[in-house]
Amino acid sequence: MYKILIVTLSALAFSTGGAASAPAVSKEPLDASTLSAIKSKFGRLMELAKKHDFKALHEMFWQSPLTLLVAKSAIQSEGNWAGFWGNEAVDQKLHDIGTSGPVLLEPDYSKFKVVSLTRDVAESYVPLNITVSYAGQDGTARPFLMIINWLRVGNDWKVASEIILPVPPGPAAKG
């Protein structure tokens, strides 16, 4: 009886050890159609920004004091780039940028990616060129990265945070 118990426990330990060391099969929390819907929402966001439709842009954002936009600042005390928290601050920043002159957003859709973080949170990433004359910028197209955290609110996806980062110039060529 003792030998049978030892053999059974040993077999159980070996089988559990093998299962524990096997790589976990990861499954995306969101299906392909949901990820595609988020990509479409991003396209809509770009379309509304191009039209300077501030009311519709407002509706695309999560309605919360925790909503975040990271963008160029026009106020010296905020630094060169700053975080703008809450819908009122986000709305004001988008309005200020959009009414400063021509704004052109050119995302590279071939590099657009969406990853599901949970069933209710996704993150998108896209490099893009932005042409704007806001806060001392000279209206020259420059490279940026746009990272958006999307939050499921009911049956819709809303922008919880939009982080726009300038791409620094590469190192100078040695000659």
Q: Could you walk me through the main structural features you see in this protein, from its secondary elements to its overall organization?
A:
The protein has 175 residues and is α+β, with helices and mostly antiparallel strands. The chain has a single domain (28-166), classed as Nuclear Transport Factor 2, Chain: A (Roll). The chain is 34% helix and 31% strand. The chain has four helices and seven strands; from the N terminus they run H-H-H-E-E-H-E-E-E-E-E. It has helices at 2-21, 32-51, 54-60, 87-98; strands spanning 68-72, 81-85, 103-107, 113-116, 121-132, 142-153, 156-166. Strands 1, 2, 3, 4, 5, 6 and 7 form a seven-stranded mixed β-sheet that branches. A hairpin with an 8-residue loop joins strand 1 (68-72) and strand 2. Helix 2 (32-51) packs antiparallel against helix 3.
List the helices and strands and how they pair.
Layout: H1 2-21, H2 32-51, H3 54-60, E1 68-72, E2 81-85, H4 87-98, E3 103-107, E4 113-116, E5 121-132, E6 142-153, E7 156-166
Parallel strand pairs: 1-7
Antiparallel strand pairs: 1-2, 3-5, 4-5, 5-6, 6-7
Helix pairs in contact: 2-3
Helix content percent band = 25-40%
Count of strand segments: 7
Top-tier CATH class: Alpha Beta
The assigned CATH architecture is: Roll
SS-derived structural category: alpha+beta
Low-confidence stretches: 1-22
- Series of H and E elements: HHHEEHEEEEE
First CA to last CA: what distance? Answer: 82 Å
Beta fraction of the residues? Answer: 25-35%
Shape: globular
Radius of gyration: 23 Å
Number of domains: 1
Mean pLDDT: 84
